[in-house]
C-alpha cells in the first residue's frame, strides 16, 4: 500500500481530515530525520522552562501504534484541570516521542495546535499554533 493510501485510510478510520501541514509532514519521510534528536523548548503553565528531546517521529506506518494508548491524555486533561478552551484531549494524537510526547490537535477548536505531554509531572503543555512553528523552534 502506498503512503498516500495509508494516509487516506487513517483519515477514514478517524472520521475527519487531518491538518494539511501534518499530511505533508507524514508523507515527507526524509524530512522526519531532520527532527531526530532535536530539542524543543517548553514553557510550562507556571512559567518554568524546560526542554524536550525528540527520539521518534510518527509515520503513516506507525500512526496507530503510536496512538494506541491515548486514554492518559484525557486523564491528564482532567487531573491538571485543563479546560476545553485550552486543549481537547480527544483530538490529540502523538506525532513525535522522546522525553514525553508531542501531540497535534487533529480536529476540534484547536485543530493544528501542537502540545507536549510529559510523564505526568506537568501534564499537557501548549507549544505552538501549528506544525511549522513547532519545527522552526527545534534546535
Structural account:
This protein is α+β, with helices and mostly antiparallel strands and 139 residues long. It has six helices and six strands, in the order αααββααββββα. It has helices at 3-14, 20-27, 29-32, 63-66, 71-79, 131-137; strands at 39-43, 49-57, 92-98, 100-105, 114-117, 124-128. A six-stranded antiparallel beta sheet has the order 1-2-3-4-5-6. The longest helix is centred in the N-terminal third of the chain and has 12 residues, at 3-14. It is globular and about 45 Å long.
Key terms:
139 residues, alpha+beta, SMI1/KNR4-like, 32% helix
Helix count equals 6
By DSSP, the count of extended strands is 6
CATH fold-level label = SMI1/KNR4-like
User: Structural class of the helix and strand makeup?
Assistant: alpha+beta
CATH architecture: 3-Layer(aba) Sandwich
Oligomer description: single chain
Fraction of residues in helix: 25-40%
* Overall average residue pLDDT: 93
In order across it, which strands form the biggest sheet? 1-2-3-4-5-6
Can you tell me the overall shape? globular
The largest β sheet comes out as: 6 strands, antiparallel
Output the radius of gyration: 14 Å
Indicate how many domains the architecture comprises. Answer: 1
Q: N- to C-terminal separation?
A: 34 Å
Q: What is the beta-strand fraction?
A: 25-35%
N-to-C order of helices and strands: HHHEEHHEEEEH
